[in-house]
Amino acid sequence: MDWQLLGLSFITVFLAEIGDKSQLAAIALGGSSKSPRAVFFGSITALILASFLGVIAGGTIAQFLPTKVLKAMAAIGFAMMALRLLWPELDED
């Protein structure tokens, strides 16, 4: 196993999830639920499944597209999200 890649993936996803909408949803559900343990395990399962689907999709797409194209597509996607956050009136068109 590539321990360096495992650590890098863990740190990247962990930092990306702090303050993310999914964490805020888990906080809201945990605070309003009588069974925070169920919220915890449901959240874990959902994050694992979402990550699994992302890895499978990335691996499948990487078979057809070069890595540079994938990185460019991700960069363009993040740039578009940033622009929409900075100028929400662009969504009203």
UniProtKB/TrEMBL annotation:
User: Mind telling me which residue stretches traverse the membrane in this protein?
Assistant: 40-62, 69-87
Q: Which keywords belong to this entry?
A: Membrane, Transmembrane, Transmembrane helix
Can you list the GO cellular component terms from the UniProt entry? membrane
Recorded topology in the membrane = Multi-pass membrane protein
Q: Does the keyword Ribosomal protein apply?
A: no
User: What's the domain of life for this entry?
Assistant: Bacteria
**Keyword Membrane among UniProt keywords:** yes
Recorded GO molecular functions are: metal ion transmembrane transporter activity
- Where does the record say this protein resides? Membrane
One Pfam assignment: GDT1
Q: Which family does it belong to?
A: Belongs to the GDT1 family.
Name it: GDT1 family protein
